[in-house]
Amino acid sequence: MENNLGTRIENIEQPELGQKKEELPSYLKMYEISGQDEISRHSYERYLANKEKETFVLTREKSPSLAEYAAEQMTEQSQSYRAHLIEEALRNSDVEYQKEFARRIFYVKKEDRAPLVKLGLKSTDSEVRKIVAASLPALSRNEIFPFIVEGLNDPDAGVRKSFVDIITFAPINERIGLIKKGLSDPDPEVKIASARIIDRLPERDTSVLIEEMFHEVEKGLSDPDVKVQKDSLSMIFCVEKKRRFNLLLKALNNQSPEVHKVAASLIGSLPDEVRPEMFRIMFDQGLGEELIKPALYKKVNINDTDFARREFIKTGSETTLIGGRLKDKTIIRHIDPVAFSSWQKIYESHDFWKSQGFDYVPIEPIQSYKVAKDGYIDVYSGVLDISLFDWKIDTDKYAIELDRQKDKIISALGKLKFDHGHSHDDNFCLRFFRDENGKVDFGKIPRLYLIDFDQATSPAH
Question: What is the pLDDT of residues 18-69, one digit of tens each?
Fold first, then answer.
């Protein structure tokens, strides 16, 4: 079976039962992530081999494709002629042309936009339809409504989710109906996105729906069917924050471990002031390992049995989550070469980190990378545990020690005049120690790692 890290899973040597794991050179030990499997254990050696064959040009600008260049040239034409060019591109069989010109629907006269949106939604490519959905705010509210209705019936769940995000631009009297449509969607990601829209609307418009959803969730948690219980929990974002605590308690009183795990993943939906109490309850119930999982996977429908990719929306770089055997082990970051080069240098500097008193490299692990067609770098990096930001909200355990680690990392980077760009608590992740069976040791102070180097610069750049 081929994975995306440039090696075959079956070809990685596994220690035989009872065989002692070979002793690693001291510098390789600094790159070991506690609890990761054999694939991840050899990631630094793979990274070094990868580096020998992958070269890239340091530039902050993507090399424009022919489609991008043509679309940029279009903006120099009159508005009326731009509409003609976009129409021609949307009828073109080349999907890249469709994408680039669809991104520029904003550049035409208001009266010309709706026909182009209508044409773009006929594209056979789901990515084109997503791009067209993003242009809907450029239309009037009355024009937007029928397009959202159409989009919520799209065969592709990703497209439907894109249209859910546009509901706040629909006429006020139509929003609740559209949200209900999204809440009834068979795809959990679309449902959750629809639930989250409620918080973005005025309370006077949603009070009745919120009350309905509270009783719906409560009823679902009493259903004997575990799937119904889990689906009901995913709708907790439709409920007032102050009522969510008791719903999670109700879920924890159910018998199913699967329901307990879903409940643990939703602790972030609670008001900050009650999260520590719920954390203690869940931790005492044996859900510690669920509580320290990173937030990456909490908003997407991705599992550890089916290989799949999902784009993760964040500011800065693009990030892709991977399902199947690589879930919880690997993500793909798509970043510019300058930032990646800075990340590489600080990641490879094991001698420096050792001189600063570290017995590990406190930098997001690079497993491998490849140069993408657009000149940017696809970086396969290792997944860690909960962010420092979320950990501090949930508990004060190890707070002093973790803050010391954070200050120590930032101070060390300052000595190199290395600028991370956004070294806040959400970009520091914990990694707890595991035993040889993968069980987390909560009695040992976790290590702290700095992640997300999409804005990084070093003196050489």
Answer: 444 455 567 777 888 887 655 555 667 777 777 777 766 565 455 556 677 6
Cα 356 to the chain's mean position, in Å?
A: 32
Q: Do domains 66-296 and 299-450 have the same CATH topology?
A: no
Dist. CA 118–CA 121, nearest whole Å? 5
Residue 239 is which amino acid? V
SS3 205: helix
368: left (phi over 0), alpha (psi -120 to 50) or beta: beta
Both tokens assigned to 354? 């050792």
Architecture of the domain made up of 299-450:
Orthogonal Bundle (1.10)
80: burial class by Cβ within 10 Å (0-12, 13-18, 19+)?
Answer: exposed
Cα gap 69→78, rounded to integer Å: 17
Please tell me whether residue 232 adopts helix, strand or coil conformation.
helix
Structure confidence at residue 19 (pLDDT): 43
- What pLDDT shows up at residue 317? 58
Domain ranges of the chain: 66-296, 299-450
Q: Which residues pair with 382 in a beta bridge?
A: 330
Nearest CA to 119 out of 104, 129, 108, 106 is that of: 129
- Which CATH number is associated with domain 66-296? 1.25.10.10
Instruction: Report the chain's terminal Cα–Cα distance, integer Å.
Output: 39
